[in-house]
Amino acid sequence: MLLKLIEEIRNFEGIKRKSHIKIAMDILKNVQDFGKVVVGIGDDAAVLKSNGGYLLFSADGVLPALVREEPYAAGKASVMVNVNDIYAMGGRPVAMVNVVASKNIERISEILKGIAKGCEKFRVPMVGGHLHPDAEEDSLVVSIVGTAKRLLLSSNAKPGDKLIFAVDLKGRVGCKTVRSWDSTSCKSSEDVVQRLEILCDISEEKLCEAAKDVSMGGVLGTIAMLLESSGVGGDIFLDDIPKPAELTINEWLKAFMSYGFILSVNCNNTEKVLNKFQEKEITASIIGEVKEGKVVEMVCGEEREVLFDFNKEGITGSFRDGQSFRIG
């Protein structure tokens, strides 16, 4: 069973498509920093020094099939993924801009209605952008800026840390084009923002230094990318991963989540972190641990198999020759 699941995960397009990040890293490596950059290409957001704190920048392009088939959902998702990227870094969103491209005016309207709904839900303004009404292909890109007092970085996982999966299971299966779990549509804006603020609290109270949001790479892909970025390995305990009854474990491991985060936490702080989430009715469980080396293994009952060996291969290429994407 485990070997079959591993093969399925390794061939999952949500993970395989991350390999192209290496191209950007290689071509843009010499222009990432002219003095103020702390974190460059590779994390959930880029980080610049700013007035004793940090300025965060991120951008996400929405899957073309989702834009084409479910434009309203695509608009909502474009806001959600950017907001989650900022919170995953320990920051708070400030504002967004967008680029919408389509010849279909009705589709443009649905995309913008979805964006408006997302902005209302997450309480983050959409302050500008650009519209291509004559584009040959439909597309949607949103960029966001945020601020942070203290950072959660993908490159900060350390051997001995526990891997915590925090997820809102009080939701429903989401859009049809992409396998997803929607736990925001059924909640008030206040509840949604309060749950996201947990990440800021954890960061500012120095309970954690490493985190990443669960996006297109799924739960296992997200853990693997965090470990790769940190230059470490780890064990993932399949039986301990919480999931909703509506999805099988194979479906769940590849699902895109509106609220799902992986945190790498020192053993001394795990109970405090778990309690932070549970106080807001977020399911949080220890599902693995960080180890020396660069091998990621999955454990299920008595079975143990290699998921990724970063001595031989990479997902994003974000850790090379002992250097992660951290600059300052």
TrEMBL record:
GO terms for biological process: thiamine biosynthetic process. SUPFAM superfamilies: PurM C-terminal domain-like, PurM N-terminal domain-like. It holds the Pfam family AIRS. It comes from the Bacteria. Residues 194-299 form the PurM-like C-terminal domain. CDD domains: PurM-like3 (cd02192). GO terms for molecular function: thiamine-phosphate kinase activity. Residues 42-146 form the PurM-like N-terminal domain. PANTHER family: THIAMINE-MONOPHOSPHATE KINASE. This is Methanogenesis marker 2 protein.
